[in-house]
Amino acid sequence: MRPRRQRSSWATSSAGWNFASTRVGPLLVVVGLVVAAVGGLVWLGLPLGRLPGDLAVERDGFRLYVPITTSLLVSGAVMLVGWLLRR
Q1: Which residues of the chain register pLDDT less than 50?
Q2: What local confidence, expressed as pLDDT, does residue 16 receive?
Q3: Which residues on adjacent β-strands are paired with residue 64?
């Protein structure tokens, strides 16, 4: 009998992800803690999503909400966490 040839894929090749050598686990824990902290602040009454600078248009049968300030705040927080993790 002829021996079977193993198929190569991105998951089994050397170019694929090697989760043993990456820091994915601790990163996921930090992301989870940040999400939980933001959820706790919103639950306690932080008006995240209704900040000054967030645009809201309400008309008959139409509602548009563009959270510009909230997006900038969340983006800054994510950048700060990323910077702290790389230090």
Answers
A1: none
A2: 57
A3: 57
In this structure, the strands spanning 55-59 and 62-66 are: antiparallel
SS3 85: helix
CA 68, CA 52: separation in Å to the nearest integer? 9
HEC string of 15-84 equals CCCCCCCCCHHHHHHHHHHHHHHHHHHHHHCCCCCCCCCCEEEEECCEEEEECHHHHHHHHHHHHHHHHH
Residue 8's pLDDT is 58
DSSP classification of residue 1: -
Contact 42, 48 (CB under 8 A): yes
